[in-house]
Amino acid sequence: MSQLETANDPRATRVRRCASCGQPSVHCREVTQHLYGGLIPSGRTYVHACAGCGAEFETLSPFRLVRDLFFATISPFVGLLVVLYGIDGPWWALLVGGLMTLFGLYWIYATIRAFVAQVRNPAV
Ligand SMILES: [Zn+2]
Fold first, then answer.
1. How remote is the CA of residue 6 from the centroid of ligand 1, in Å?
2. What value does the mean pLDDT take over residues 7-20?
3. Is 105 helix (H, G, I), strand (E, B) or coil?
């Protein structure tokens, strides 16, 4: 297992100003490199923590943000199509479609939340 390279990643090394307490004391404490099939890079997720007040939030790399917005937006529509199929079809399609729709809506929320956290806690 190789160590994740973060020295040249500005998102992982920059200090940010905390939106909760106003102190320039937010550091990145965890970086996750996402891989398709264990091989193809698909962006990074960063967990940031404030040394002053303990506030924590997550941000996404630009590629991860665009990718998540794309798939998160598609998800509820596919879920609704499955629900429509289930109205006159098998009962499980209502359940699967409903869950897929709810998951997609949560995914959109989580992606937007990560982007808002990045804007509200700017690098200093
Ligand atoms: Zn803080």
1. 23
2. 94
3. helix
Domain boundaries, the chain: 10-120
Question: How close is the Cα of 119 to the center of ligand 1, in Å?
Answer: 15
What does the pLDDT look like over 21-73, one tens digit per residue? 999 999 999 999 999 898 999 999 999 999 999 999 999 999 999 999 999 99
Ligand 1 center–CA 111 separation, angstroms: 22
Residue 95 identity (one-letter amino acid)? L
Retrieve residue 72's tokens. Answer: 């998160």
pTM to 2 decimals? Answer: 0.85
Q: Residue 40 C-alpha to ligand 1 middle, in angstroms?
A: 35
Look at residue 123 and give its three-state secondary structure.
Answer: strand
Amino acid, res. 45: T
Q: How many angstroms separate the alpha carbon of residue 17 from the centre of ligand 1?
A: 8
